[in-house]
Amino acid sequence: FAELHAAVPGLPLASSRVLPGIVLRRDFAAYCPTDGELRALLVAEPLRPALTAPGVEFVVDSEGQYQASLRWIAKRTEALMKHLQSKNVKLLLSSVKQEDVVIYYAKLYGVSVVECLSSEEMALITEITGVSPYVPFGDSMDREITETAVVTFCQPLPLVSKRCVHVGFASVCAFQPHCLILCGPVDGVNEQHAAALQEAFTMLQQLFKTVDQ
């Protein structure tokens, strides 16, 4: 329930509504508008390539070597974004903050980015789509991308002074997520209404379990 409702103070209760899909309570790090169905990639690691393996020290002896390293990173990052574009991946959903070079090339190749998603949000998206986070680079950055989620829409959603991301997924199970936008004059009222609704849903769950048995 925590991931399927958003409380919005400062609006009358009558402004509350139910929206299809889910609302991620953060803004786009990069937003590239697109029409129609697209693909989303889940990531749980930085997409910027590492210069060395973990535990290996990398020593730069000159400014020239440093600049060459930056060019190598940029080239590898650009190649990955081109690869995503070729697979119709136009949305990155990341549980970690991505570096500026990733955001730059994402914008350049028309890939929207939402970062710093919580573990609960990532788990919910995985449950809806059946897709696990992609492990970038590994032995080879050209490793085939086999798991992408089908996204039916993806757009900004302003909620008073906060900008959120509203996204719809093609579900692989019977669960069709909807998000409750719960409005109220102040946070305290919203919290009371949210708690009452959660208790009501819990009661209904128990009722249906009893009927099924």
UniProtKB/TrEMBL annotation:
One of the GO BP terms on file: chaperone-mediated protein complex assembly
Domain of life: Eukaryota
Name of the protein this chain belongs to: BBS10 protein
Gene: Bbs10_0
